[in-house]
Amino acid sequence: MATKQQYEQLIEQINANYEKLTEFQIEDLVRENELGSQLSFKDAESTIIKTIDLFNRAKTVNYEDVPYNLLNNFNNQLKAANDRFDSFKSFNPNQNNPVNQRDSLITQLDNQYDGYYQHTLPILTVGLLSGNDLSVQQAKIDQLVSDLDKKTKETEKKGEEYLTQLDETLKSAEEAAAKVGVSRHSQIFNTESTEHERQSKIWLKWTVGVLIAIVVAAIIFIFVFPDTTSSSAEIIQFSITKVIVLSAMFYGLSICNRNYKAHKHNATLNKHRQNALSTFETFAKAAGTDAQTKNAVLIEATHTIFSNQQTGYLNSEKDNESSNKIVEIIKNVATNKE
User: Fold this and answer.
1) pLDDT-based confidence at residue 162 (cuts at 50, 70, 90)
2) From its phi and psi, is residue 231 left (phi > 0), alpha (psi between -120 and 50) or beta?
3) CA 20 to each of CA 15, 52, 61: distance values in angstroms, whole numbers, following the listed order
4) Environment class of residue 45 by beta-carbon count within 10 Å: exposed (0-12), middle (13-18) or buried (19+)?
5) Is the CB of residue 2 less than 8 Å from the CB of residue 68?
6) What is the pLDDT of residues 178-195, one digit of tens each?
7) pTM of the model
8) From CA 233, how far away is CA 226, in angstroms rounded?
9) Radius of gyration (Cα) for the chain, nearest Å?
10) Is the pLDDT higher at 111 or at 270?
11) Cβ atoms of 244 and 167 closer than 8 Å
């Protein structure tokens, strides 16, 4: 068994060989710029890189854990690699048959690489088993798993946030669509109310005009009458004419008045329906999650829209039977939802 002093001496030799190995540059060993493509060691470049990389992997191993014989063999291979690289650097292109000499050096390096690998592998294995490489790798794996779990949770959280935003957007879109629908139907009643109001003003003017015409005609008829020389037939004819004219004018007055009241009634009724729809959304929101209150508001709004409300402009105002049937249907639907 080797002594501690022998280990220390061998490790010093290994470190010295490593220092020399680090001095080699790939360009200095290939020497393509110096020797040209015909005599350079370009064909050995890949083997040179593999050799240097192989020995560098074993550089971090704790050599005290490696058996002395294995470590000594490794040192010999490391020294042999340095010697081979020295031969590349000292190659003289002016010697006899330089191409064969160059090819021989490349072949020797290729053949020696297997030995480099065989004697370096035990060093790497000892370093892997005795060092903290496994625990380090396990720690890295655990860290990766932890990071992956963290990212997964973050992704799930973001996904939930996106779903919440989508739900809110969908709800807002539904509310906007409902508002648009309510506003659209409210606008329909507003248009109808405006049109009937315009027609009522026209018929009011006709009513006033006909009434003025009746007054004027009555005044004229007071001062216009047959003279004393008129016969009885002429007087009767004149009287009948006045009655017919005044009756026709009163009939026209009644028609104008009836049309005025009808249009005014419809204008007021549609305005009331518009107001009911315009305020429906406010009362529905005020009810919150109370379905019973919402149903009550819906039924009342439906009753206001589909029933024939009294406005005072018509003499006989009764609710339409079909309107009551519609309200009953809405009531049944609301009850079933509960």
Assistant:
1) confident
2) beta
3) 9, 11, 18
4) middle
5) yes
6) 555 555 677 888 888 889
7) 0.40
8) 11
9) 56
10) 111
11) no
